[in-house]
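job 3f2a | input accepted
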Amino acid sequence: QVRLVESGGGLVQPGGSLKLSCAASGSIFNINTMAWYRQGPGKQRDMVATITSGGTTNYADSVKGRFTISRDNAKNTVYLQMNSLAPEDTAVYYCYAHIVTSGGGANRGYWGQGTQVTVSS
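job 3f2a | predicted structure (121 res):
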């Protein structure tokens, strides 16, 4: 019953900014690591950024210094602030989370449906 829903994608000009959100809902007992992945046209799905439940972050080299991942545990939400966007950032961005469900559920990974980010002038 767990679902991850991304929002905030859209069309932005090079050099612009965009903030993505991903809200988890359902029978959630605990959310561990959350992450953002992306898949550009004709490319593999790659990790963009991760954040642990304690707030430790990790970034792909291609976005380091431009993107910031954060989370609001009270809202079961992870964010991705994207600055200085370039055409190569164009991709479908996917939310991912390791979640322990209520009622003694085991930890497992969940994916969102993805949100399109297009960087073009």
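job 3f2a | The radius of gyration is 14 Å.
job 3f2a | closed
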